[in-house]
Amino acid sequence: MELFKIGFLSVGLADIIDIVLVSFIFYRLYQAMRGTIAIQIFAGLLLILIFSFVAQALNLKAMSWFLRTLTDIWVIAFIILFQPELRRLLVLVSRNPVVRLFVKVNADESIDEIVAAVTELSKKKIGALIVLVRASGIRMAVETGTKLDAQLSRSLLVSIFNPRSPLHDGAVVVKDKVVEAARCTLPLSNLSAWEGQLLGTRHRAGLGISEQADVIVVIVSEETGMVSIAENGTLHRGLTPAVLRKELKARFTIPADRSPAAIWRLVKANS
After folding, report:
1. pTM, whole model, 2 decimals?
2. Are residues 246 and 129 in the same domain?
3. Which residues of 198-225 are buried (b: 16+ CB within 10 A; e: fewer)?
């Protein structure tokens, strides 16, 4: 359906939708890569693509071939060199609340057990690192540890992080009601301080995995007993048991109302 014309070009409804979708994708790409070196390479690749379109429109065959070849090389280099940024982009997509509406997350019944264990560990100043998987698994991290596949319980978590336990050094990965593995090694964040305070290895590991996967990480400081949550590369510190329970339930609760109107309200709230 033609809406209007610009010179000899006719613009229809499908063209407008196409332009809006492409613009939105480029905008989200820019948001995900802003502040990284990848944005500079992305801008260079975009410039070459524009030159390539202009060369094709002017029927410059040699220049079109040269720019097309260069674009292919840059795309491959972009994927190889900036794999972390691209992986983070995919993680951002999976973190979208609309995506989670169609992903079953059954962690609500486990939250009380986790809060009870964290409260006991905090009082005893026993360090802990608990990774709660949300939408997608972290198989690579699980494979670095000792596989358990055990029923989640307060006593199990407390036993694992007991300093005399051979499994206490590392992270515990929890999915739904199951402790998948213990003594797991997590990637460290590049951040060495947060709000002016130096971060230890446990907090850097919690931040690191939260930057790369759709997870919630509960951290108990061995020095102070302070409880923190890491999510999406952000650290929330000094949580009480009540606040911890509230925050976990808020992050793992799936709305019962999945009507189009409810989905649209969720998108607007998180945009």
Report:
1. 0.62
2. yes
3. ebeebbbbbbbbbbbbbbbbbbbbeeee
